[in-house]
Amino acid sequence: MKEVDRIHFGSPLEESRQGEVLDMQAPEEHIKEERRKLYIESYGCQMNFSDSEIVASILMDQGFETIGDYKEADVVFVNTCSIRENAEQRVRNRLKEFEAAKQRKPGMIIGVLGCMAERLKARFLEEEKLVDLVVGPDAYRDLPNLIQQVDDGSRAVNVLLSREETYADISPVRLNSNGVSAFISIMRGCDNMCSFCVVPFTRGRERSRDPESIVKEAQDLYNAGYREVTLLGQNVDSYKFKCNEGTRTVNFAQLLEKVALVHPDLRVRFSTSHPKDITNEVLYAIAKYENICKYIHLPVQSGNSRVLELMNRTYDREWYLERVDAIRRIIPDCGISTDIITGFCSETVEEHEDTLSIMDHVKYDFAYMFAYSERPGTLAAKRYEDDVPEEEKKRRLTEVVNKQREHSLYRLENFVGKVHKVLIEGFSKRSDEDYCGRNDQNTMMVFPVDERFKVGQYVNVLAETCTSATLIGRIVD
Ligand code: 5AD
Ligand code: SF4
């Protein structure tokens, strides 16, 4: 799953559902009940950001309001990521700042949520003395109760993983939203056991969410003015839900169609696809509906079949390339992005060159690239030696990054001179005189504001030039 920058959640667009409360003891005065203030900061993949919206929803039902300044908060949550060691280190550094704030504001509750909570469990309370709460990704419904335990003077932990929990009935509170695009979580957990990956241990077994609740969430978002949804799962292609007491199964291709049919003006994106599971049926569904974006995030991890086998990816180089050929055949112009790990256990220089050559073959639009980071408890940590020296991992990473830079530019240059349908997502970061939004292939475009068109509308934009990551153009409607 794509990793996004740390972001804090505050100032939700939705008003809190809790109204003003009259104090019966003081009839002359209308005293507004103080709502407890919640600050949530999220790290890691989009699923964590989506989970924070569920957490906010659960606590707003308890009378909390969300705020954007942790120093003012009664409860500070950090929704954590364990995918690489440096992700955990960033969280620990940030916790130091929260702990300093707590010393200035006694009574502040600090909670660690998500993957690090699940990985470290009660040990977290030993290691970080000022943390009050440790809550795993399947235990968020228990938060009101756990906060009560902290209010009563104990520290609280719930890291139980579930085989059923999908939070299907909880309407996420859209936080830090542009009011145009939103995430919808369609499944949780992962059963794949890639040998480098900690996710199966921190997020538990894979389970899919009821399609009716997904379609309803998409419809509600459309009705509220949203125009793009991203369906989220660790491996969306293995989505499977048994309906009608098990007599009928909905797979990912069918789910995509159902969501696409909510409204032709609702764009549908999804992440992450797994090369072993992405079927032609899914590709045909993408090709069939104009509003399903022509963009697939298809992590390759390595271009070498021996390394892929050690990674337990369950496909080889040929299989991956066949899937890419199928994408190109069934969905011409489809954007493809990927994830790559350099310096996995025992990877040789020649094997690393296979990764460079698969990149040359596919010419990805975009890539997330990482040096291998051994995670405790994973299959690789147990079975294989982390024997590629750190400098060599970094050197290979630099080669991969440089190659990707060339390919991204190649793709961008191919877009120049063409007209793209863009959903206006907001104003550009640099200037209020420019709008920004993405084309079908997920490439960011920046173009001058035209008063006839508002945020949330579609426009045709001619790409006139590009920087290293953005197309620059003008509306030609
Ligand atoms: N080291 C480096 N990168 C990793 N990823 C997952 N686990 C590790 C690890 N131990 C990368 C993979 C995955 C992405 C989300 O993070 O490329 O697709
Ligand atoms: Fe991790 Fe592999 Fe599952 Fe992705 S598919 S979350 S890399 S185990």
From TrEMBL:
It is found in: Cytoplasm. InterPro entries: Elp3/MiaA/NifB-like_rSAM, Methylthiotransferase, Methylthiotransferase_CS, Methylthiotransferase_N, Methylthiotransferase_N_sf, MiaB_methiolase, rSAM, rSAM_horseshoe. Residues 176-411 form the Radical SAM core domain. One of its GO terms (molecular function) is 4 iron, 4 sulfur cluster binding. Residues 413-477 form the TRAM domain. [4Fe-4S] cluster 1 binds at C45, C81, C115. Keywords: 4Fe-4S, Cytoplasm, Iron, Iron-sulfur, Metal-binding, S-adenosyl-L-methionine, Transferase, tRNA processing. Residues 36-152 form the MTTase N-terminal domain. SMART domains: Elp3. Its cofactor is [4Fe-4S] cluster. It holds the Pfam family Radical_SAM. Monomer. NCBIfam families: miaB-methiolase (TIGR01574), MiaB/RimO family radical SAM methylthiotransferase (TIGR00089). Catalyzes the methylthiolation of N6-(dimethylallyl)adenosine (i(6)A), leading to the formation of 2-methylthio-N6-(dimethylallyl)adenosine (ms(2)i(6)A) at position 37 in tRNAs that read codons beginning with uridine. This is tRNA-2-methylthio-N(6)-dimethylallyladenosine synthase. It comes from Candidatus Sphingobacterium stercoripullorum. The lineage of its organism: Bacteria, Pseudomonadati, Bacteroidota, Sphingobacteriia, Sphingobacteriales.
